[in-house]
């Protein structure tokens, strides 16, 4: 059951994706993106495919290092590497969001790499301004930015956004949100049938499948959950927090033989409880508000207390025994916030570990395993929170 | 942190140091020289500033006054706010809030103490801050977080959308110290209705925040006085920028440092105006005599620092430039984007500049919001570097306006926003005919690369490119 999601995620890691194949077969343009701020609903309503690009195929960052400076996180460098190797040529467009300073510079570095390596820059290339706060005026601005994006997409791909289609897309994504909330409840169970690696497979599949397929597959998994074997008993329950992670290998490294990741806040994934988007009179504004509100990334400045409360709630509801904070080197946003959160969680009695790593395939698994092994020895034998 | 570092508040230590230094020229020249010989290892900063004439004396007094305000704000019943170099303090002065600019204090320590800010930088890491974050905030912030300061009431920044590491330092401080925090957010485009509305609404929300925490409404007359002072300062800076176009440049290189240092500390206050007036007077005299502002009166090369300077002990960067007869024609910190400035006048893009307007309170607030949106870094490093009104455009235009021979980039390893694309910028400026040097030093922390090594690499660049 869960193997379906693993298969999709594995294929994705090798640069293959059912949704891409399907879209290409139908002649439907594919738009890449790098961050959580691009509302999929809009692309769906425009009959375009939104695809979150990954750098997991990168085995080195020589191309990335050519354009980025040395003090930059390995995630955008890995993305540029994959782009420079020509593996994103299937993209018809790309939307760059200033998620953080390193990621926003992917805009320039990709374009400039395109001057040296022919054919790697998609015809549609868009920089989506994304506020760092969620005041009314920020939502107004983001609404305008989304409308600017819609206009550009309509113009480029000769498509038209209709209110009816947008509301339908919102309904479909709201359905996903309901299912993902149920999925997180499943992760909270102990004993439970889902590991952190399984959860990551589901999250990755979400971007690799069309929404109808994803929803129906996840629904099947949830229905069958009571019959699935226990995978969590006797394992340390870990909450994993920090920089973007989009590869199952990394989660498996964290889990090893002794632990299970029962909750996370990793950019890719869910922010339980996922709330519905309520379209109202202006569905684009509703989306703008939702996407700014939903973000639990330290790039939203002045929102630390809310993030901290949400993570404490997640740790409690998932019955976490310990917390692993990780950041990709040069990710000061997560790295520093991890320092603050570590103090909070340690005071609450949760053993914590802070790791600094490289992105995805560039991470040094041996060193991480050694530190994780030592951390597991710190964790209590009995579980702190039974659910 | 060593126990002796905790013995005195760091801001009090700096205040006493700057206060005594600012009094050194009150006697005779002989007394000054005798006293100078007794100043320990930081004699160089005292001499480099005071030997720059009346402007230097005024600048040192300004530094002492700034520190005096920080140390005594609470005694005087004023709130203070930790803030950043690219956040104009003008509004704060209009609202009786004492600014504590982290980068200014970090630079003061780096320029004055042989130990620099190392202990405070490391303290930040000790309590959870990343070692890869920017040293410009972390130096002074470490002291504040360690409780070795006069205390903090509010935390303010304006770098979300411009510089993560800067904004993150303030977010960390606010959470760690549990202090009220406001951050102005900057959209990726400088001009246009959407960005303008955003700047203005955010700025008004900042004023409401300050009113709520000081208990005082913004006073129209106070704001008017501050804006009038800023206008005067802009006029003086524009004249200095115009003078720097002359060949030879009649301004001593250190004047650029005085320009931005004064603005960061006292924009909107007469203390800043006095320093600027002294510089203009000295510049006019040199220009009338056709004399270069350099110590030896000769200008061999003209450099543009497209980002920031290097704040190593005793202002050795400026001495190095003097030694090679290199005039610095400003950097991202020193330029203003007023419509009076040569940049805006000569490029003709008036929207890119700001104009201070005073007919009513709303217009004053709007124009201050637009000025704040054009502070260093905030103005030109918010969107993609090669977009309109951004870093490449302004760097190339300034390089042309000032007839420069080469461009230098220096920052800190924490500067994610520029290290993400500075290689691209250098490629473009080289293509435009300007030899461009990327310094890998840390402007505020010699432990990353010693000054001696930085100097050697800089000279290597100058020799390799046959500039010297």
Structure, described:
- The complex is a heterodimer of chains A (387) and B (468).
- Chain A has 387 residues and is α/β, with parallel strands linked by helices.
- Chain A has 16 helices and eight strands.
- Chain A has a domain at 18-161: Rossmann fold.
- Chain A is 51% helix and 11% strand.
- Chain A has a four-stranded parallel sheet. Chain A has a four-stranded parallel sheet with strand order 6-5-7-8, with helices on both faces.
- In chain A, helix 9 (163-188) packs parallel to helix 11 (211-224).
- The longest helix of chain A has 26 residues, at 163-188.
- With 468 residues, chain B is an alpha/beta fold.
- Chain B has two domains: 3-219, Rossmann fold; 221-464, Rossmann fold, CATH 3.40.50.
- In chain B, the strands form two sheets. A four-stranded parallel sheet of chain B has the order 2-1-3-4, sandwiched between helices.
- In chain B, helix 9 links the parallel strand 3 (154-157) and strand 4.
- Chain B is globular.
- Classes of the chains: A alpha/beta (387), B alpha/beta (468).
- At the A-B interface, helix 6, helix 7, helix 8 and helix 15 of A face helix 9, strand 4, helix 10, helix 18 and helix 19 of B.
Element layout with pairings:
The complex is a heterodimer of chains A (387) and B (468).
Chain A: H1 2-13, H2 18-26, E1 30-33, H3 40-45, E2 49-52, H4 62-67, H5 74-84, E3 93-96, H6 101-104, H7 106-116, E4 124-127, H8 136-157, H9 163-188, H10 196-208, H11 211-224, E5 236-242, H12 248-255, E6 259-265, H13 283-294, H14 304-317, E7 322-328, H15 332-347, E8 352-357, H16 365-378
Parallel strand pairs in A: 1-2, 1-3, 3-4, 5-6, 5-7, 7-8
Chain B: H1 10-22, H2 29-38, H3 43-50, H4 54-72, E1 79-83, H5 90-94, E2 97-101, H6 102-112, H7 118-126, H8 135-145, E3 154-157, H9 164-177, E4 181-183, H10 193-214, H11 220-243, H12 254-266, H13 270-289, E5 301-305, H14 316-323, E6 326-331, H15 342-347, H16 361-372, H17 391-401, E7 406-409, H18 416-419, H19 422-431, E8 436-438, H20 451-464
